[in-house]
């Protein structure tokens, strides 16, 4: 989140005075310590009418076709330039729902905490979750907290699940992709993964590389309002990056994809970091980015609308769907050569999201 917003939220959410500084096994026992931790943190900070019920589950009002998604987050380090594991968890599930054409409404939130985690770090994660929920317009309505012994976790793991109604104009399906569709990417590639790696490797550049983690639901819903079923497919290229997700789509839809390297937007510092570490940016994780397959007839209008949005200022058309070479993704390089794009064969960047 922007630095001024972080300061504002921290001032609004001062950490309560507690008589313990670290998380212990007792905080996961379900007894007095668990209740003190949750009362002073989760329930107070994230309070709403549904969460205040403190039931084993949540009572929700949902109407019509609904999307559901779940994801687990185990990023290392848990604090990184541009965010932390808390807002990453909220944004990740919010964005998965948005890719379905849904309006995210309710999230569950579960923690697995390693014994010894400083309470201050847990509080900072909760504050980030609160801010991310407010920004996305979602509510935490149920959850769970467990504590594991020292050495049997890695500080904290977070799981979020979410539900939301699908927009009536949305029809987001792989089967809707057709020859001639244009492929639009919403912004610079590889920023999240390289923000994590720059911290791990101690890399320093002229300016700090920051994660692109953010919620995309408001941006997506505006596009659906404007262009409806002309948006055939939406996906966010997180683990495995742009290359892997496009290869998966080409295989499942049995279509060919042509890409043009010169059209890919990327920050210069990110490109330098990738080159320094010998990483292909097309396989690096993103957390505030989406790819849209849209009808050729509306592609330019979609791009214009997206570039007017705060989450799409660097959006570009990067390729198209073709009848040739079905199930294959072909990249034309900046100098005119071509190469076949495959899925990521292994784990290029572990513990990235």
UniProtKB/TrEMBL annotation:
<dbReference type="InterPro" id="IPR036921">
    <property type="entry name" value="PurM-like_N_sf"/>
</dbReference>
<feature type="domain" description="PurM-like N-terminal">
    <location>
        <begin position="56"/>
        <end position="164"/>
    </location>
</feature>
<dbReference type="InterPro" id="IPR036676">
    <property type="entry name" value="PurM-like_C_sf"/>
</dbReference>
<comment type="similarity">
    <text>Belongs to the HypE family.</text>
</comment>
<dbReference type="Pfam" id="PF02769">
    <property type="entry name" value="AIRS_C"/>
</dbReference>
<dbReference type="InterPro" id="IPR010918">
    <property type="entry name" value="PurM-like_C_dom"/>
</dbReference>
<feature type="domain" description="PurM-like C-terminal">
    <location>
        <begin position="179"/>
        <end position="329"/>
    </location>
</feature>
<dbReference type="InterPro" id="IPR016188">
    <property type="entry name" value="PurM-like_N"/>
</dbReference>
<dbReference type="GO" id="GO:0051604">
    <property type="term" value="P:protein maturation"/>
</dbReference>
<dbReference type="InterPro" id="IPR011854">
    <property type="entry name" value="HypE"/>
</dbReference>
<protein>
    <submittedName>
        <fullName>Hydrogenase expression/formation protein HypE</fullName>
    </submittedName>
</protein>
<dbReference type="Pfam" id="PF00586">
    <property type="entry name" value="AIRS"/>
</dbReference>
């Amino acid at each position: 989140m922007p630095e001024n917003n972080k300061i504002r939220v921290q001032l609004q959410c001062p950490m309560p005075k507690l008589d313990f500084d670290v998380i212990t096994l007792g905080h996961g026992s379900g007894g007095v310590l668990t209740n003190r931790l949750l009362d002073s943190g989760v329930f107070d900070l994230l309070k709403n009418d549904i969460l205040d019920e403190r039931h084993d589950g949540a009572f929700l009002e949902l109407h019509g076709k609904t999307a559901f998604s779940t994801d687990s987050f185990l990023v290392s380090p848990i604090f990184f330039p541009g965010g932390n594991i808390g807002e990453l968890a909220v944004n990740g599930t919010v964005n998965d729902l948005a890719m379905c054409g849904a309006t995210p409404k309710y999230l569950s939130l579960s923690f697995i905490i390693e014994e010894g985690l400083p309470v201050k770090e847990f509080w900072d994660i909760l504050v980030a979750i609160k801010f991310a929920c407010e920004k996305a317009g979602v509510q935490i309505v149920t959850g769970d907290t467990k504590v594991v012994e020292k050495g049997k976790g890695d500080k904290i793991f977070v799981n979020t699940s979410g539900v939301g109604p699908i927009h009536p104009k949305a029809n987001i399906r792989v089967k809707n992709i057709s020859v001639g569709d244009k492929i639009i990417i919403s912004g610079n590639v590889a920023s999240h993964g390289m923000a994590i790696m720059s911290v791990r490797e101690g890399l320093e550049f002229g300016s700090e590389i920051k994660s692109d983690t953010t919620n995309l639901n408001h941006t997506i819903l505006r596009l659906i309002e404007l262009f409806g079923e002309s948006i055939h497919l939406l996906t966010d290229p997180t683990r495995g990056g742009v290359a892997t997700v496009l290869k998966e789509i080409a295989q499942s839809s049995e279509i060919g994809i042509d890409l043009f390297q010169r059209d890919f937007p990327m920050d210069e510092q990110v490109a330098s970091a990738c080159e320094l570490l010998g990483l292909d940016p097309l396989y690096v994780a993103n957390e505030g980015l989406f790819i849209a397959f849209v009808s050729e007839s509306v592609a330019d209008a979609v791009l214009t609308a997206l570039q007017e949005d705060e989450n799409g200022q660097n959006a570009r058309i990067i390729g198209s769907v073709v009848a040739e070479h079905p199930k294959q993704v072909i990249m034309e390089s900046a100098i005119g050569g071509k190469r076949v794009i495959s899925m990521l064969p292994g784990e290029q960047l572990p513990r990235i999201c």
